[in-house]
Specification:
The protein is of the alpha+beta class. It is 19% helix and 27% strand. The chain has helices at residues 7-16, 27-33, 164-171, 206-217, 220-228, 259-276, 337-349, 385-397, 450-458, and strands at residues 41-47, 50-56, 75-82, 90-98, 105-111, 118-125, 128-129, 133-136, 147-153, 176-179, 231-233, 294-298, 302-306, 354-359, 403-407, 413-419, 429-435, 445-446, 462-477, 480-488, 499-507, 515-516.
Length: 517
């Protein structure tokens, strides 16, 4: 049962951290450092009895050395979890140590919670109390869940636009948020709206990645969305470098072209990503390696498989047009053999009503050329067509019902049927893909653009297109899935409203899109 406090009351409490706490011996030291909780709070990877809580102590979030204004000492951080936003019914308490080696980030894995319940949490250092966050545990895997509401998003270039979409997302009544990558942008783009990147050039070092995260996470709209619901996250490319693949840099200049040097860059990028996101210790990076792909269940209603489409892929092919046979090379892989097996085995064993892939780059075929000629993007699943075919064949062979892919990266929205053979429109439909637009990347966008016109004309499996900014709200029941494309008309100015551009419905037991309204 939902708590009697409404969304607005919670956001007021969270923003003000309106709770009293006893002063502890570290009080004077914490006060001298300044406001420790400038980056807010977050929770993530909800399980039935557990959730991870996050914060990072940073009185100076963009201090050039990357340490956020903190001394080179460990700091004792207390955390509390309650059944109410005023913390009158505290059910769990604990202590973590924020250490300089991990930029004084905190990842508290809280256990012993009840399934499918709202909780509120906060952190305490000395006399300082963090903002209050709301989280929610997942339903038990065996429970019959009748409904789930979540949002998914990606691509938030700070210099391109305001994060207004996140403020609107915070006002939604969501069970969980799924972020599909490009949480930061690594480049030196300074934009034209007065939100220039820090540092002012492309980032390579750990210190510079930390500064970039400090800038992004200082945004109040992003903080509000994190505080409002638990997040499940996975990186795409810009958290490291645009269009990277495995150990291969896509830069044409030294020194990052060398695989050994690129692995050092990836190690720095992964470390900063973990330091700033609500991830479990199982995802703590070890040098240039990090466990990204993982599986979460929400009762018997929905199984979410988060993918890693960067670390194990074959390098991209050169751009090609008609008769691009190389993309059908069976040796090319998007996921790598181990992840591909993990995914198909998990889908085959699933008892969930809906089987979902959290996917970074779109899987539907997208011919970019009008007329008889063809042209495909090589960074997407189109450049790995044989690997995509293995995935879709595996879905059919394992009789996976209600197969859905949610996707980011492309800075545009598309709802499409996933076909066993895209060359044949009458081919079997194996599932549905919802491609979601960017939060801000690319500026304001438009309701329709030239590429959208071409895509709809050349790709009959695409049923909807829009290239504005926003996020996607999904309302899932046992009988149907509805994705509402929530659009923010302008991101180059603050406080733009949000509207629902379209609602796309899929009926359980019937592969493909049933209705666009």
């Amino acid at each position: 049962m939902r708590d009697q406090f409404g969304r607005r009351q919670f956001l007021t409490l969270a923003g003000a951290a309106a709770v009293a706490t006893a002063v502890v011996p570290e009080a004077r030291a914490s006060s001298r450092l300044g406001d420790l909780f400038t980056l807010g709070v977050a929770s993530g990877d909800p399980e039935p009895y557990s959730v991870v809580l996050w914060t990072r102590l940073a009185p100076e979030p963009v201090a050039p050395d990357g340490y956020g204004g903190m001394p080179a000492k460990r700091v004792l951080v207390k955390w509390e979890v309650a059944e109410d936003p005023r913390f009158r019914r505290i059910v769990r308490r604990g202590v973590e140590h924020a250490v300089p080696e991990w930029a004084h980030s905190v990842h508290a894995e809280v256990h012993g919670l009840r399934p499918d319940r709202e909780y509120w949490y906060r952190f305490v250092v000395g006399d300082q109390v963090s903002p209050v966050g709301r989280t929610r545990t997942a339903p038990a895997w065996y429970s019959r869940l009748n409904g789930l509401t979540f949002a998914f998003a990606s691509c938030q270039a700070y210099a391109d636009g305001y994060f207004t979409a996140f403020r609107h997302m915070a006002d939604e009544d969501l069970d969980v948020v799924v972020h599909l990558g490009d949480y930061i942008y690594e480049g030196g783009n300074q934009g034209t709206i007065g939100r220039p990147h820090l540092p002012a050039a492309e980032v390579f070092s750990l210190a510079d990645y930390r500064v970039r995260y400090g800038q992004y996470k200082s945004d109040p709209d992003l903080q509000a969305a994190h505080a409002a619901a638990p997040w499940v996250v996975a990186p795409d490319d810009h958290e490291v470098e645009n269009n990277w693949a495995g150990d291969i840099s896509q830069l044409d200049t030294e020194p990052d072209q060398d695989p050994a040097v690129f692995r050092q860059r990836r190690a720095a990028a992964y470390r900063a990503y973990y330091e700033n996101l609500p991830l479990r210790r199982t995802s703590m990076p070890r040098g240039p390696e990090m466990q990204v792909y993982r599986r979460l269940s929400f009762g018997n209603l929905l199984q979410l498989n988060m993918l890693d489409t960067r670390r194990f892929r074959t390098d991209q092919l050169e751009q090609c047009a008609q008769n691009c046979d190389g993309r059908w090379d069976p040796a090319r892989t998007m996921l790598g053999a181990q992840q591909e097996k993990w995914l198909l085995d998990g889908l085959g064993r699933s008892h969930a009503r809906w089987n979902v892939l959290g996917n970074q780059i779109f899987a539907f075929e997208a011919d970019h050329e009008a007329g008889v000629s063809e042209r495909y993007g090589m960074d997407t699943w189109d450049g790995y067509a044989a690997a995509r075919q293995r995935l879709f064949d595996g879905v059919v062979q394992r009789k996976v019902d209600n197969f859905v892919m949610i996707t980011g990266d492309a800075h545009r929205s598309v709802a499409a049927d996933l076909k066993l053979n895209f060359a044949d429109p009458s081919s079997r439909t194996v599932g549905t893909e919802f491609l979601g637009t960017s939060i801000s990347s690319g500026g304001n966008g438009a309701d329709m653009d030239a590429l959208g016109v071409t895509w709809l004309a050349e790709n009959p499996h695409m049923k909807f297109h829009n290239s504005q900014r926003g996020y996607q709200r999904c309302v899932v029941t046992r009988d149907e899935w509805r994705t509402d494309y929530r659009v923010v008309p302008q991101v180059t100015v603050p406080d733009s409203p949000v509207l629902t551009r379209a609602g796309i419905t899929v009926e359980a037991g019937k592969a493909g899109i049933a209705d666009v309204s």
